[in-house]
Design brief:
single chain, about 425 residues, alpha/beta, Rossmann fold, about 15% strand, binds glutamic acid
Length: about 425
């Protein structure tokens, strides 16, 4: 029985979906109801005001959050999101997903997330730096290499992490690189961290192909929704495997070529022009049309909630790899699974990012750094192993719903740890 029920957590669709999925997993695995009740809410949340001076001299105040969902297995871990739709409830839902993700892939880390409600594309570099520094300073009492370790997410990158690391270190008086991951290489970042999420997505697709018995070759069609840090790398890696990437999109819309893109040329074009439109030998396509393409593999790698009850009937992909966190809502997910679509769930498919963040943290503590080949090999081994554990779980629980099986695997490890630690006081 929960005593407090203000409804504050349930305010966002992402949080509600995460709880619905947790409840379903709890039902199938017959989870201890006391543990279920505890996992439905975050451990701790901090709301901060982030005032900054804009370039025109005016002061603007933004709202920031850091939520620690569960820290049974180790320090909190999770990204920092800068986006205009960020809310306390959304950050809490994302922190919950981080808990299950870290547990599923066997990391000694808990789940956390942070964010600021801001459209970063409207800020200058200086304004973004001020925002990052003040936000870091406001949350400094709950983060740290042994407490909670932020990383990049939507709207943040290696430079953002460098500013966070510097601010935190300045306040303590010495360099503390382990306070964040996803740092630039020159500041103790890890080789392969920037590409790790996209690469991990593709490693899980390769295992899916083996599991379902199909080859990835020039007849395999792929559509990628979102062309940022995750989508662009996943598209590139799929093309390197020989697949035909026929459609990609970003916030402004997408492009289509039924014969598949020359990915090298496309990446060069995007880097130069910062847009997809106008790429030679392609026709424009809307984001909705891309999601409805008849392709073998769809990779929604932009943001949550893009496949929902209103557009799910149009989705024709055979395999969907969730590159973003929560791109398919609970209703749509159920409908797709019933239709036999194979969905590689976010907490498995996009876990590559946090796995290599963990490697970065470990390398930093040892002051001993690995080659990119070593990072990729270790990443592959962890994510492929988790994939097979989840598939075994699907057989054991007689379900074709991989999301439920992945959650069960994550929650199961956590449940054992929570029961061993017991309830304080
Ligand atoms: N933001 C990424 C995620 O959602 C990475 C988090 C991390 O590396 O800590 O998984």
């Amino acid at each position: 029985m929960s005593i407090l029920n203000s409804g504050i957590w349930e305010a966002s669709p992402l949080y509600k979906n995460a709880v619905l999925q947790l409840e379903e997993a709890g039902r199938v695995m017959k989870l201890d109801p006391n543990v279920l009740e505890r996992l439905k809410r975050p451990k701790r949340a901090l709301i901060v005001s982030v005032p900054i001076r804009l370039d025109d001299g005016a002061v603007a105040v933004f709202e920031g959050y850091r939520v620690q969902h569960n820290m049974t297995l180790g320090p909190g871990k999770g990204g920092i999101r800068y986006h205009q739709d960020v809310s306390l409830s959304e950050v809490a839902g994302l922190a919950m997903l981080m808990t299950f993700k870290c547990s599923l892939v066997g990391l000694p880390l808990g789940g956390a997330k942070g964010g600021i409600c801001v459209d970063p594309t409207r800020l200058s570099r200086l304004e973004k730096q001020s925002l990052t520094r003040r936000y870091t300073s406001e949350i400094n009492m709950i983060i740290g290499p042994d407490k909670d370790i932020p990383a990049p997410d939507i709207g943040t990158d290696a430079q953002t992490m460098a500013w966070m690391m510097d601010t935190f270190s300045q306040e303590q008086g010495y360099a503390i690189p382990g306070v964040v991951t996803g740092k630039p290489l020159d500041l103790g970042g890890s080789h392969g961290r920037a590409e790790s999420t996209g690469r991990g997505v593709v490693y899980t697709i390769i295992e899916t192909a083996k599991h379902l018995g199909f080859d990835i070759d020039e007849n395999t069609t792929v559509a990628v929704h979102g062309f940022g840090k995750v989508g662009s790398v996943a598209a590139e890696e799929m093309a390197l495997l020989g697949a035909k990437v026929v459609a990609v999109s970003d916030v402004d819309g997408g492009i289509y070529n039924r014969n598949g893109f020359n990915m090298k040329a496309l990446l060069a074009y995007y880097q130069k022009n910062r847009r997809l439109a106008g790429f030679p030998e392609s026709e424009p396509i809307t984001n909705d049309e891309l999601l409805a393409l008849k392709v073998d593999i769809l990779i929604p790698a932009a943001i949550d909630g893009v496949i929902h009850s209103k557009n799910v009937a149009k989705v024709k992909a055979k395999v969907i790899a969730e590159g973003a966190n929560g791109p398919i809502n609970a209703d749509a997910h159920k409908a797709l699974v019933e239709r036999g679509v194979f969905i590689i769930p976010d907490i498995l498919s996009n876990a590559g990012g946090v796995i290599v963040s963990y490697f970065e943290w470990v390398q930093g503590m040892q002051n001993f750094f690995w080659s990119e080949a070593e990072v990729n090999e270790k990443l592959k081994s962890i994510i492929v192993n988790a994939f097979h554990r989840v598939v075994d779980g699907m057989h054991r629980h007689k379900t074709n719903d991989m999301k439920t099986a992945a959650l069960i695997a994550g929650v199961d490890r956590l449940n054992r740890a929570m029961l061993l630690r017991g309830l304080f006081p």
